Amino acid sequence: MSQFFDVHPTHPQLRLLKQAAQILHGGGVAAIPTDSSYALVCRLDDKAAVEQLRRIREVDERHHLTLLCRDLSELASYARVDNRQYRLLKLGTPGPYTFILEATKEVPRRVSHPSRRTIGLRVPDHPTTQALLTEFGPPLLATTLIPPGESEPLNDADEIRERFGKQLSAIVAAGACPMQPTTVVDLSGEEPVLIRQGRGELGRLGL
Predict the structure, then answer these.
(1) CATH C-level class of 3-205
(2) Which CA distances in Å does 10 have to 13, 22, 73, 127?
(3) What residue spans of 43-166 are helical by DSSP H?
(4) Where are the beta strands (DSSP E) in the chain?
(5) Following CA atoms 60, 89, 173, 135 in sequence, which dihedral angle do they give, to the nearest 10 degrees?
(6) pTM to 2 decimals?
(7) Residue 1: pLDDT above 80?
(8) 3-state secondary structure of 204
(9) How far is it, in rounded angstroms, from Cα 39 to Cα 98?
């Protein structure tokens, strides 16, 4: 069964997040809150954890996974970013936007898109997510917690525990999230392409 960490939504207890970070460092998969919805997260460089994350969501290697970063400087280590892309990233971070970018060699091939060598990256605007990323250190690999065969993400930590408690190592509960996935914009080509309209407004990006 997963460990359940009930944290304050705006001032999360660091001792609890330290424990959650240790579980993730040990190869666990966790459910955590973000500024869009709850997400599944694990270590980027842990093959078994990545496979478990994909099994829970029932997605294959062609499904874009996302790196949750603390800030733009961290994001630049994992994606190739030119000046045009950087301007857009700056407008949308932190916030409920996922940007598809060409991955650098810091990203293992098994987690990037197999044919395009791209990865989703974002900087979440949520105090618990940011505090957990600070405790954990490197970015976390993530995917929206949408149950297989469903279209809406889960938003209630107790429901997540009931449905996925046996498959997860940890659940970080910080109250309800907006329950709307991120807006996804593909920046890997010549022009930005909207992949999914979510919580993030396109006007903020000037698109």
Answers:
(1) alpha beta
(2) 10, 21, 24, 6
(3) 47-57, 72-75, 83-92, 127-136, 157-164
(4) 3-6, 30-32, 39-43, 66-68, 97-102, 118-122, 140-144, 170-173, 183-186, 193-196
(5) 100
(6) 0.93
(7) no
(8) helix
(9) 13
| pLDDT (0 to 100) of residue 177 | 87
DSSP state of 21: H
Q: Would you state the structure tokens that stand for residue 166, as one six-digit string?
A: 């046996």
Predicted confidence at residue 74, as pLDDT, reads 87
> Residue 79: helix, strand or coil by DSSP?
strand
Residue 47 token pair: 């093959």
Q: Phi then psi for 114, rounded to 5 degrees?
A: -65, -35
- By C-alpha distance, which of 175, 140, 149 is closest to 160? 175
Pairwise CA distance, residues 189 & 183, whole Å: 17
Q: How far apart are CA 89 and CA 76, in angstroms?
A: 10
- Residue type, position 157, single letter: A
Joined tokens for residue 200: 């993030």
For the chain, give every domain's residue range.
3-205
